[in-house]
Amino acid sequence: MNTQEFAGRSDPSGPVADIATVLQALADPVRLAMVRSLAGSVEPICCSSFQVPVTKSTLSHHFRVLRGAGLIEQRAEGTRKLTTLRRAEIDAAYPGLVETLVRAPLELPESLELDEAVRESELAAGALAG
Questions:
Q1: For the ranges 4-8, 19-23, 91-95, 102-106, which has the lowest average pLDDT?
Q2: Three-class DSSP category at 102
Q3: Closest Cα to residue 114, out of 43, 6, 42, 36?
Q4: Among 40, 56, 59, 120, which is least packed by CB within 10 angstroms?
Q5: Residue 6 CA, distance from chain mean position
Q6: 3-97: in CATH 1.10.10.10
Q7: Rounded to an integer, what distance in angstroms lies between the CA atom of residue 86 and that of residue 99?
Q8: Straight-line distance from the first to the last Cα atom of the chain, in angstroms, rounded to the nearest whole number
Q9: What is the pTM of this model?
Q10: Is 70 left (phi over 0), alpha (psi -120 to 50) or beta?
Q11: Helix (H) or strand (E) holding 5
């Protein structure tokens, strides 16, 4: 399944996609940083709070890809759109995947810098790991 196909899935609450599609969605360093940030957050994160070095339209594309792969869900709350990681569904489909993503060192190209939320979530994940 290519990016075009899973980006347009109509049922974002459906099952997590096949492993190839999930890995393809996570292959982009911006999306990986977004997922790691969501994994470290107890509360949903407002879409405008993701401090990633991309335009608003590119950020929307990243959300669409992650939703299409079944990794996140979004809901409107007033004028805000809140994003959560579908952790239970991901863990059921691919046990240990989220934990592995959180624990693995994140190597971003020099052109991408980690935002403060990602740094904080990594610190929190490290504290939880012991």
A1: 4-8
A2: helix
A3: 36
A4: 56
A5: 15
A6: yes
A7: 13
A8: 38
A9: 0.73
A10: left
A11: helix 3-7
Domain ranges of the chain: 3-97
Question: Token match 């993503």: residue?
Answer: 101
Mean pLDDT of 9-36: 85
pLDDT at 11: 45
- Higher-confidence residue of 115 and 39: namely 39
Token pair recorded at residue 76: 């409107």
Q: Please, where are the H alpha helices in 27-115?
A: 29-39, 56-68, 87-93, 97-103
pLDDT of amino acid 53: 84
Pairing relationship of beta strands 45-46 and 72-77 according to DSSP bridges: unpaired
Residue found by looking up tokens 């991309």 in the block: 54
Average pLDDT of 93-120? 73
